[in-house]
Amino acid sequence: LAVVHDTTPRHTHTGRVETMAAGSGVAALGDEVGADFAAAAAYLRSVRDAGGRLHILSGAGMSVSSGVPVFRNSDGTMSDEFLAFLSDYNAARTAHGLPEVDDWFGFSVPQMFAKATEKAAWAYWRWRTLRAMVTPADDYRLLQSIIQYFGEENVFVTTSNCDMLHVLSGTSPMRLHEIHGCLGRVQCSNLCCDKLYPVDEAFLQRLRDEEHWIPRCPECNDACLRPNVMIFGDHKLVFSELDAQQARGDAFKRGSLGATSQASGGHARPSAVLEIGAGVVVPSIRMAAEDLAARGCGLVRVNPSVDECKQMALGRDIGPLYFPLAHRSTAALRGLCSALGLDSHLH
Prior knowledge:
By secondary structure, the protein is α/β, with parallel strands linked by helices. It is elongated. The chain contains 11 helices and 9 strands. Helix content is 34%, strand content 13%. Helix 1 packs across helix 11, helix 2 (80-95) packs antiparallel against helix 4 (118-131) and helix 5 (138-150) runs parallel beside helix 11 (329-339). Residues 1-34 have low confidence and may be disordered. The chain starts with 36 loop residues before the first helix and ends in an 8-residue tail after the last helix. It has a 6-stranded parallel sheet, with helices on both faces. Strands 5-4-6 form a 3-stranded antiparallel sheet, with helices on one face.
């Protein structure tokens, strides 16, 4: 979902953005970052034609047009919707003689599922889960067109979103790493076992119909269930599915970086990175994308903020193959599809 759950340091560094000469085939980046679709598409096409691979990394901004809420404002403060849940959570803590917490980092923690606060915790997670049950918007459909352009076997998707929209839009679960987990699975909040349970239609219906229902772990019949989503200081997460996804992603990287292909004449297989909707407050996705770029992959960054396009989470130059598209995800992906000649996919 739109809120990112991990323990990455919550600060960024501004790095230098390389300025290329006009006509170099790379987006010129001076003081203003333009939406150079032609240059970005030309690079993606060159990678694809050389038998290369595409790493797609998506963050919270990717799901906004689908109706999945963003809980963090652009300045890093929490939204009014989140603050209402925080207030109810603190009321429950006060009623049980516990101190209040100040922010997201004291709220979204394993202790929220303790008996004293499990009702307030599930009020929030019920809302989160039901709000994720949406139809993927056009940006996801357009992204699938780019995946098909490269060929599914040549693409891997890494996302910080927990909303399952990549799979719902057609991405194979075997080509996906949900680094913070998934709202489609639940587990025991006290880690009595490592079993994962699907959030199926019967589970969703109870969430819709029973406002105060707290799902209980069927193994211990004591602790409540919780989403298999990484939260802050999470020492009670079942990692089995995340580990399997990461292993597949690592294998894809090994097959990309330093590998050769027949289409490239036996030379190193090129790889491209397409980053979409990754913010700067918790920069997990940006850091992963920039790390790949620093290892020789060209980076196409989709972000509506010109300033955020210029910021480098790793605080270092990522090289000349940088193509910032300062547009929202739907407009940027539509522009890329058009420049790639995928016009039949635009409507």
